[in-house]
Amino acid sequence: MKVELFTPVAYYGDLDAYETWPLRPRWYKSEHGMQSMQFGFEQMEAAYEGGFDSLNLAEHHYTSQLTPVPHLFAAALGERLPDAQIAVNGTDLPLHNPIMVAEQYAMLDNLLGGRLRFALLRGTPNEYMTYGTNPWEAREKFEEGVELVIRALTEPEPFGWEGKYFRSRNIALFPQPVQKPHPRILLSANSVASARFAGRMRCDAGISFMAPEKCGEVVAAYREAAAEAGWAPTADNILYRQFAYIAETDEQAREDTADKWPQGKGLFATDNLDQLIAMATAGAALAGAPKGAPLDPSMAPKFGEPFLGSPETVLAQIREAERHIGMGRVEFAIVPPSNCLSHEQVIRCIKLIGRELIPALHADAPAAA
């Protein structure tokens, strides 16, 4: 099994409320921000030295995660670590012009020498407030955007596009990506509909934070849609992301996270869901959505238990998740949204994974397709 690290490039500084969205610009201190970005590089470097198979970033706005434009951090990281596999997991596609997204990734794949993977995601409901995106249009707009990104990355001649949400008389990407037909693309599979779309588009499937025992239906939908599209995913096409914290003992792991995480803290905590829906509803109303129209239920958080404990405990948790999911890639999200862990704790956790978990997981026979 492959082991990947998701690093949010967390802001390590005094904030009045990490759970508030959006964060107040006046709270930002440049000395803390620059140090935090350096911490992000150090966490990625520790993961690379520890044998992680991919170093992953994501796009978030107005939060304590300092990657609203993750491509810039990924390009800089590629210069520091010229042999590392790097992924942007991912871009919140409904917020952007898909042609620009395709250009950014084509250029980044050249800068990284063909080491790029990326995800195209719908984003969380609060993200739609960033640029005034209508959440009631998000699914259709996202799916059209994915098709347009792939077409732009693979079409050898200029072409036009006349869709419901995007129109262009002339599209001609230059430069083209290094990897052919394009870098591997991951799409969310946190619902049956999104899993089927990932299978139909011949993309990797990413399952984030769901309880493993609840993942069987989406994995089956992904494989079924892939078969209908004429291909068969392997375990390597399935990534499972979960919050994680590993210490030398179960007791130490619980002590380090007690009363902080993941018990009800952070932007994505269950008790904050009403706030997220209210923000998204307000944004959609401004965009002309029907009053009282329900949000897409697949956008609601569905958190399972984190990987938490000693290396032995977490290895058993991963084996149990693999039994339900059949994934060939596990992605550790070590710093939660509320950023309660210190940089030193994160580094220790990464190094412990490298010493104790990665050799065991890399020694696995390939998971069943």
UniProtKB/TrEMBL annotation:
Pfam families: Bac_luciferase. It comes from the Bacteria. SUPFAM superfamilies: Bacterial luciferase-like (SSF51679). Residues 36-323 form the Luciferase-like domain. InterPro entries: Bact_Lucif_Oxidored, Luciferase-like_dom, Luciferase-like_sf. Gene3D superfamilies: Luciferase-like domain (3.20.20.30). The keyword Repeat does not apply. Keywords: Monooxygenase, Oxidoreductase. This is Luciferase-like domain-containing protein. The lineage of its organism: Bacteria, Bacillati, Actinomycetota, Actinomycetes, Kitasatosporales.
